[in-house]
Amino acid sequence: MAITKETVEYVAHLARIQLEEHELEKLSAQLKSILDFIDQLKKLEVSNIKPTSHILPINNVLREDTRGESLAVEKTLMNAPRKEGNFFVVPKVIE
Q: Which domains does the chain have, with CATH numbers?
């Protein structure tokens, strides 16, 4: 895909980003370089590589799942601007 200065200018306009002339040229060149690299990656044979493969032998380090102390309801709600019973009261955001 060809990235021209006009394409970058159009996308910047849609994003409401004001770019100077030298920024348009620099960004056009950078985006072209990125897309060229992606085209190189598309040529690689990856059909035999599992989607979750990783080049390093990594494992998640998991801790024992143990039950701990919880905050008391009174202490949890102590600084709440509004509360009702044992609950926080928040403004309705769904119409």
A: 5-42 (1.10.20)
CB 43 within 8 A of CB 53: no
For strands 87-88 and 83-84, give the pairing.
antiparallel
What's residue 34's pLDDT?
93
List beta partners, residue 84.
87
Q: Which residue do the tokens 């990125």 mark?
A: 34
End-to-end CA distance of the chain: 42
pLDDT, tens digit, 9 for 90 and up, residues 5-16? 889 999 999 999
- Does the pLDDT of residue 1 top 70, yes or no? no
Angle between helices 21-42 and 5-14 (to 10 degrees): 100
Q: Hey, is 8 helix, strand or coil?
A: helix
Which H or E element spans position 40? helix 21-42
